[in-house]
Amino acid sequence: MDNYIEQFTIYLKLERGVAENTLVNYLYDLEKLQQFLGDENDFLKVQETDIRNFIYFLADFLAPATQARILSSLNHFYSFLILQTLIENNPVTFIELPKQAQKLPIVLSVHEIDLLLSCINFNTLEGVRNDAIIETMYSCGLRVSEVISLKLSDLFFDEGFIKVNGKGSKQRFVPIASSAIKKINHYVKNIRTQIKIKQEAEDVLFLNRRGAQLTRAMIFTILKDLAKLSGINKNISPHTLRHSFATHLLENGADLRSIQLMLGHESITTTEVYLHLDRQKLKQEVEKFHPWNNK
Hints:
Residues 1-82 form the Core-binding (CB) domain. This protein is mostly helical and 295 residues long. It is built from 13 helices and three strands. It has helices spanning 2-16, 20-37, 48-58, 64-83, 110-118, 125-140, 144-148, 178-190, 216-230, 238-251, 256-263, 268-271, 273-289, and strands at 155-156, 161-165, 171-175. The protein has a three-stranded antiparallel beta sheet. Helix 5 (110-118) crosses helix 9, helix 6 packs antiparallel against helix 8 (178-190) and helix 6 (125-140) packs across helix 10. The protein starts with a helix and ends in a 6-residue tail after the last helix.
């Protein structure tokens, strides 16, 4: 059994190019199934009823979203076994995903983003850097992992684009606003030059005070501190800026396919959550301003 698990791992790494965290999740989910089945059971002998019983078991202590992720992992695994002619049928094929209540993402208004930026202390080196980071994330809709890994060699300002290294090592080119270009150039020329940069971080754009690449946790802290100073009573995170980017584009007339490409979503269905946000806002506007609603 270990042999085809090993083959599946190689397949995910080399042919699918999945990220390390995704790979760990796949293998962890297979381990959960093996624990449920018992050591005497073989993955190759698993039937649809076994998978159903496994999901019923998980439902007692795991959220629907986690159950759905595990089913997705198992589906990829058994599809791989079919490709290897080790089995004929995928036992996951006809199992429905657990129903999930759609949780709409938290979004900041343009005024709230301006408010965040207004609370930055520009008398510090970190303040100028933080201003450039937030402007870049909001201007380009970047994930936190994408902004901390952004490199000087990824900046194509003459063309008005940056190269982004997204999930699964997939690259995309994203337009960048002139305001973000201006702030990045100011940071690079006047702040970054004052830092003693570590050798491994020479091409990294945004650095900490010790000249190393910033961590994800540091970006979270920066935003949480600014939210507290600004008085914004929302549970915001770096992803909030990404959600705000997409929502504001949609509100101003951008088409969903363009937003999908800029965000680097593999499926258009992932991007469609912003349609729900847009409809929710329209509903609120009708409820607020329609004359009959004031009766």
